[in-house]
Amino acid sequence: MTRELRVKCLVLDHDDTVVKSTPEINYPSFKRALSVLRPEVELTFELFTELNFVHGFEDLCYKYFAFNEEEAAYQEKCWREASETIPCAYEGLAELLHEYVRNGGKVCVSTQSTEERVIRDYEAGGLPKPDMVFDWNCERRKPDPYALEEIMRIYDLKPEELLMVDDLKTGYIMANRVSVPFACAGWSDNQIPMIREFITKNSDYYVERVEDLEKLLYV
Length: 219
What we know:
Layout: E1 9-12, H1 21-37, H2 45-55, H3 57-64, H4 69-82, H5 93-102, E2 106-110, H6 115-124, E3 132-134, H7 146-155, E4 162-166, H8 169-177, E5 182-185, H9 193-202, E6 205-207, H10 214-217
Parallel strand pairs: 1-2, 1-4, 2-3, 4-5, 5-6
């Protein structure tokens, strides 16, 4: 027996929403790059998380640390080497997403990772293959709302028929720009007090546990 969907398309961030990548990959690789590019900077996990939250990763690289093209390429090289490690998916997501897809839901991804990494991580974690992936190589990457606009256009959906789930402000910004409901992935390893305070106040939903996400998906 199928369940009636409230959300027809679930749009997921990837890093620290679906997989545990910042503590395992993103932070260590950025710290390694920064030790060469800006050795005077002491980068703790909390500081990296806060800077990424406040600025977004793209502005963190190009505006806050003012990387030039060569430096950005070195940072990406460090990240690619580190990301050969496959991060673990958050417990319970595979079962939740398979059930959602069985009931007719679409799963799309909006990420600042790459599509190849997303597909690899979904396969490794036993998650259903996403219907669409909008990644770092997208010309209008998030927080630009292009991904949500395209999903609504292609699947003929209204904003209220989508749900954007992210652990950081970029997902909130893109969803807010096109009136798509936003849920914060409160289960994320990134939920330090500063982020939790902002995101709790501004999210349509603050989802503390993976299993609680299911309550938002069905009528």
